[in-house]
Amino acid sequence: MQSINNREIININNFTEKKSENENLKKIKTFIEKYWKFFVFVFGALFFFIIISEEKYTLEITTSPSNSIITFEGVDTKLPTYKKKLLEGEYTIKVENERFIPQEKKINLVKDTSIHVVLLPLLTPESVKTNIDNSISPDLAVELKLFDKNTLIGINPKNGYLITISNGQTNTLHARDVYSYSYDKPFVYVIDRGNKTRLTEINIETKEKRTINLEKLAPIVSATLSPNRENLLILGNFELISRNTTLYKTPKNSLSLEEITTSIINEIKYLTNDLVLTVMLADANNLSVFSIHNVNTWKQKYSTKGNLHLLSPNKEKIIIQRSSSISIINISTLRESRVSVSESTKVAWSGDDTIVFIENTNPGIKMHYLNIENSVKSSVIEIPELSSIVIKTFVGIEDNVAHLVDTSGKFWNISLPF
Question: Any idea what the Cα angle at residue 365 is, between residues 364 and 370, rounded to 5°?
């Protein structure tokens, strides 16, 4: 038997290994030739996914006042504007300015986004100026309401006449003993105490008057005009025992009465052309029922109890006030938010999104404001000039001037920094 030496064994093993390697390479080559399109697709898709996942969006930030400073993700830009393409994600910005309340916002960037940040002034005792309007007598001051920035309206307690006060001048708008009045600028609707069968319409700008005879609706209680000035809602047929009234709708310029409902409603107010606010008589706790109805279907949309209501200047929001809280209702969505207040707090709108709070501290007052749009609340301040008074009526705010009446009948004007 022929023997095999070690060198021959090594050569045979090397041959076998090389043959095996060649076969593996052929398999790999065959595999690649067969599936190369698949690999191209997978790697192409992966590359596309990486590109998509890193897509950038433009973020643009502007500020007011225009000399404010933006801090972006903790880095002071030293600029009042910012515009840059950024990866999708959440970012934090802060906007600051001297004598203004700083704002911090989180932005979830998922598309090109532009935001405008409005800073609100700091409220300090030094930023508030006060004076007494001596042209308004104490007996008149308590009855006044703010009609617009230049005009106060109210009933003269001496004779019951409806008057206006503008630039210190008192004018008689309706020289009869007035039972009630309501206004939807520029119109005022008046019901005489001695004749509740007619409604007097007065255009406060032109001073034109129109008398609407409504004997079938007597006694008349109240009226309100739709924002488009096409329709009137009139409360009439008041019954003394049941306290019921009947609500009618009619075109403004052609009397054609449509009965809507009968209930214990004692006040009505158009909010939009389709929505109306009704106020039902106060209960034993002195709380009235405030409801919002669709005037066409009379379907109730919202209801709550409170002491008084305040409509924002743009008629998009309404405040319902109670002794310990206020409700702020967005009229288009009917969403409600509540803010706690003390029983001695009085509120008024300053513009369409800011509410001013004045709290009696007996004597003296505290003041602060809340901006709804930006959810910004100012600091609470005390006004030295008002340290010895108690506020009876918060008449309203126009052109950054708050009008207050104290318990002695003095009419105060407070200039505000916002």
Answer: 170
